[in-house]
Automatic annotation (TrEMBL):
Residue ranges constituting the Transcription regulator TrmB C-terminal domain according to the UniProt record: 137-264
Naturally occurring in which organism (per UniProt): Archaeoglobus fulgidus
Domain of life: Archaea
SUPFAM superfamilies on file: Winged helix' DNA-binding domain
Alphabetized Gene3D superfamilies for the sequence: Winged helix-like DNA-binding domain superfamily/Winged helix DNA-binding domain
Sequence ranges assigned to domain Transcription regulator TrmB N-terminal in this UniProt record: 27-92
Protein name per Swiss-Prot or TrEMBL: TrmB family transcriptional regulator
InterPro entries given in the database record: TrmB-like, Tscrpt_reg_TrmB_C, Tscrpt_reg_TrmB_N, WH-like_DNA-bd_sf, WH_DNA-bd_sf
Length: 266
């Protein structure tokens, strides 16, 4: 911008609310609240020293001078005298256009970076998935175990393999029956292997699953989803449950093969 004296464009500044509205819009365009107030005060009152402006804005003179120098660097005001230091505001239309150009340039920069941002995020997600493949997460408590199993059922896309005892059958009946019904509606197959007496299995569980009964007791207790993730119930005492959740490919594959072998032998 050429540092020549330019007449302030004709805007009616007689109403205080109008000045405040202009300041608010300038803040939306990137100025701080105080920068906008000082600019508008200078625009409305004409050329002023920092001392004179400080009386209009009720701010300390050193603070106002710092704001004026910042506005000068941004090309929104300029000096018409160095001794004393007198500042004048560029017309509002020039200032608004300048601020809009800056915002537009920032938007173009962000827009051009869109593909890069998306690729970085996808890489981040991929790394997180790979890092989780080796995780063995210990889960303490009945409620936490139930919640994790529920989340696994919600993620299921193809098949859920259950190996359960009487406590697992009760868990399905009282906590997961609706989740299994939703999974089936998505086309998910539900299999249950159990060694309990068939008469102890509620009808609602039989309706939502393909169930087979083992002739010998099995201490293994686990839920395997889509051959991708599993939860093993390692202990079940009167005072609670401890389980292990994992996505470890080797472990998941091994238990899946064991399950398929037992299932096929019955």
């Amino acid at each position: 911008m050429s540092k020549t004296i330019i007449n302030v464009c004709s805007i009616d500044f007689s109403v205080k609310e109008e000045l405040e509205s202009i300041s608010e819009y300038l803040v939306k365009l990137g100025l701080t609240k105080k920068e906008a107030e000082v600019y508008v005060a200078l625009l409305a009152s004409g050329p002023k020293t920092g001392m004179e402006l400080s009386k209009l804005t009720s701010d300390p003179a050193p603070f106002v001078y710092r704001l004026l120098r910042r506005l000068e660097k941004k090309g929104l005001v300029f000096r018409i005298s160095d001794n004393p230091m007198i500042f004048k505001a560029y017309p509002i239309d020039i200032v608004v256009s300048s601020l809009l150009d800056e915002r537009e340039q920032e938007f173009k920069t962000l827009l051009s970076a869109k593909d890069t941002i998306i690729k970085l995020y996808e890489l981040h997600i991929d790394r997180r998935k790979k890092s989780k493949e080796l995780d063995f997460i210990v889960i303490n408590g009945v409620t936490n175990t139930i919640n994790v199993i529920g989340e696994m059922i919600e993620r299921a896309e193809c098949e859920i393999k259950n190996m359960v005892g009487i406590e697992g059958v009760e868990r399905i009946k009282y906590w997961h029956i609706l989740e299994y019904e939703k999974a089936i509606s998505r086309g998910v197959k539900v299999k249950i292997l159990t060694s309990i007496d068939p008469s102890d299995v509620p009808d609602e569980i039989i309706e939502v699953s393909d169930i087979k009964f083992l002739k010998i007791p099995m201490n293994a207790r686990f839920v395997l989803v889509d051959d991708k993730e599993l939860i093993i119930i390692t202990s079940q005492e009167e005072d609670g449950i401890m389980s292990i959740y994992s996505r470890n490919k080797s472990l998941v594959k091994t238990l899946s093969e064991v399950y398929v072998y037992i299932w096929g032998s019955i």
